[in-house]
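Dock zinc ion; give full complex structure.
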Amino acid sequence: MEKLIITAAITGSRITREITPHIPITQAEIVQSAYECWQAGASIVHIHVRDPNTGQGTQDVGVFRQVVEPLREKTDLILCLTTSGIPGRNLPTEDRIAPVDLKPELASFDAGSINLGGTVFINSPEFLDRAAEKMKETGVKPEIEIFDLGMIVTSLRMRDQGKLDEPLHFQFVLGTPWGAPATPKSFLHLHEHIPDNATWSIIGIGKGHLPMSMMALAMGGHIRVGLEDNIYYSKGVLAETNAQFVERIVKIAREYGREIATPDEAREILSIE
Ligand code: ZN
């Protein structure tokens, strides 16, 4: 079976120190946590950054640069920068896609709108067209985030219109309180709709993390871990680092007999070389 790509989602934009004291907030903390994940076996890190004054998510390219540059110096990680901004706060399109200017190898691409945390995370057709256009111009591969089946339909239509290039790479986000549940049946239904030549990874939110990771392990997909998606290491026990999650998946995958992809191997698997 293909080697396993582990992505670590370091911080997201919504989790505060009140929710868990272990969430990386400053640029230095984000860099350090990503570095530890790389050492533990992650080949991709999914990056949000926080406003140093408020601790909230920001799409300020200057702040992103303070995370991107040290990681490029110290590691060979694949960087996947967010274009979601602060989901639900719906920043202007050009602000959301500004980090693409730093030419990461991947950028997140949320392929439709969804209710999220009492508000609506808007990804309008206009936003998707503009984000796809900018990623194409800059040679950044979209990581297509899928919360529901309609988002796959949208992505395939954009592929047919020449806006997204194959092979597509999907990131399934299962188990949010507003989208597809983190169950095998739910996932299999979504999986049936992606093209055979697509690559995919899976996020199980919260308690969905390990069950969905095991689906990916067995089915030849890839796995995203990290505090953005899940703050608990086990029931009622907060994770203290992102690397803990990477280490656990590495251990399980090795026992299972699936090798872990290096960043260069991940580039080959995802056709981003
Ligand atoms: Zn994110």
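Observed: Residues 9, 12, 46, 48, 82, 84, 108, 228 surround zinc ion (CB under 6 Å).
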